[in-house]
Write a structure and sequence with these properties.
homodimer, mainly alpha, 2 domains, globular, CHAD domain-containing protein (chains A, B), CHAD_dom (chains A, B), CHAD_dom_sf (chains A, B)
């Protein structure tokens, strides 16, 4: 037990600093591992890098009054740029996987992409449409992914990135706390985030989402493009607040798995986001000039299928959320 | 109370004969009303005519051993021809209503059919696609409906039809019961139908249907055309058995509304059938040669939307059915 912390709660500032140092160290570890990886192996360290960046950024945001504000805001902006740049490649790859998976479900077993069926059936039009839609989506998303990969590599070699890494290295050794920070308890800041989360969830149409097959997610799906996306926005917002809440809980010393509901709710909202983006990608592929009607038809089915999954994710979210609807869970104070 | 039936249960044969006479009389009444109606007013008597025809046909089937078999089989075949012929016009009209209603839900409020949006939006492609899809579906289903209308008029003027009407007129005055029929109780025949219904329901994938958003109805939706239809077949079969069961219950003297579950279950399966047929019509419109990709895309979304409603109808059916899952309801014996 040598070197164990002295008994008695550590002061608030030290709890926060310890969390930020740990995340900064994780960021630097993931960065080192990413540099030493081949392209194929780089996905996992890239994920770890983004996870650490999100945690640092979220913590700087939640506990902003305890930190050097100018320095924090500056670092947060740069971390957002970095996460965004690194996320894009992964997002295109995940979207492609999701859409190809859906096309496999929608057309008979066997490879779809880039291969027309060996035996033309009486209704070959639809099957060929699915194959062509798969090939089109693959071409477009692979191109987007390759571009995102180049952009990410460029970013990681840029002086802007080196400045971010330097700032995180500073954070790993010395957190720029305000002089009066140690006197403040952390719990009220975390509670603020939780209150904002609960408020945002309360504004969601959860009753409607709890009625299976309400057909809401496809409402106006053939209108202007903005229509379905605008109904998604509050859900995306809750997803971000939920993450911010989870990081705040971690920062004040709660176990990551202490609230199973948060994990289930987060997974449902990740699925919501993924399905919404896949649906948009299918609609966008359908606007490619000079595609065959059968291809466009398959993309329409695919779009609607993904919008159904958006609705399914909302149903899953409300089920998780309302299961423990009146917990009165108090945030523990470290 | 003069003319009230004597106390004590009437013999089985008389119960059956009374029911058949009543339905035959209703058939003749609806037929007379249909002949006196203008085209616009003819829909309601046509519905009543088909309802009576279905009840007569179902009763002849269920209680076949009590009736002159050859005569019954002959009349049933002719009633099936008549109902089928009369149903088609109504079915095309209902399908069109359903699809146009869905397109209204899928694209912004305002008329869709045959009118492009006044102000072309940035994403006008999709909106125009919805308008064109609506116009195409309307053209095709209106044509089909007009043809069905002519066929129905022709049928109603044919000597074949007059023979059916004559046979029903016979039924209205004298039901061709077998001589030994009056000794047989009716309940076992009705129980047979119920047993067949329960067996068919037990073979349905109700557990899966009870999981909302199981995405089953779109499974292989882009494969050969037969794929989704083949998964619908057992549900359509249950729909017919449920109807046969309801008519058998009526024939043995139970009130039509005595089992609320049957009504809800029947409505869910009607919706299942309507949505499945609308989905097929959308897919079939998408195979029209030389349509624009935006039109095909809208039809793909529409097809998936209707298949989604197929799934919703299955969910509704299992909810109604399982609500009173272990009733051990015995068929009352008249």
């Amino acid at each position: 037990m040598a070197g164990a912390p002295a008994a008695g709660a550590p002061v608030a500032g030290e709890v926060l600093a310890r969390y930020l140092r740990a995340q900064a160290t994780e960021f630097l570890r993931a960065l080192r591992q990413h540099r030493e990886s081949s392209t194929e192996e780089a996905a996992e360290p890239a994920l770890a890098l983004r996870a650490a960046a999100r945690r640092i950024s979220g913590t700087l945001h939640t506990f902003r009054p305890l930190l050097d504000a100018e320095w924090s805001d500056q670092l947060r902006a740069e971390l957002a740029w970095l996460s965004g740049t690194l996320a894009r490649e992964h997002a295109h790859a995940a979207r492609l996987d999701r859409l190809i998976g859906a096309l496999h479900r929608l057309s008979p077993a066997g490879p779809v992409v880039g291969r027309a069926p060996a035996v033309p059936t009486q209704n070959g039009g639809l099957t060929v449409g699915a194959a062509k839609a798969g090939a089109l989506v693959e071409r477009q998303l692979t191109l987007a992914r390759t571009r995102a990969h180049s952009t990410a590599l460029q970013a990681l070699g840029s002086s802007r990135f080196h400045a971010v890494a330097d700032a995180v290295a500073v954070l790993a050794s010395e957190v720029p706390l305000r002089r009066d920070a140690s006197g403040h308890p952390l719990a009220p800041f975390a509670a603020d985030v939780e209150a904002r989360l609960n408020e945002a969830v309360a504004a969601l149409p959860l009753v409607r989402a709890g009625h299976p097959y309400n057909a809401e997610a496809l409402l106006h799906g053939l209108g202007t493009d903005a229509a379905p996306e605008s109904q998604d926005t509050p859900w995306h917002q809750v997803r971000l607040l939920l993450r911010l809440h989870r990081y705040a809980q971690e920062a004040i010393g709660l176990e990551p798995g202490h609230d199973v509901r948060l994990i289930g709710a987060g997974q449902a909202l990740d699925r919501h986001r993924d399905a919404a983006e896949a649906a948009t990608a299918a609609a966008s592929a359908a606007r490619t000039p000079r595609i065959a009607p059968a291809t466009a038809y398959a993309l329409g089915v695919l779009h609607a299928d993904q919008r159904h999954d958006v609705e399914a994710a909302r149903f899953a979210f409300q089920a998780v959320w309302r299961r423990n609807a009146s917990p009165d869970r108090a945030v523990s104070t470290p």
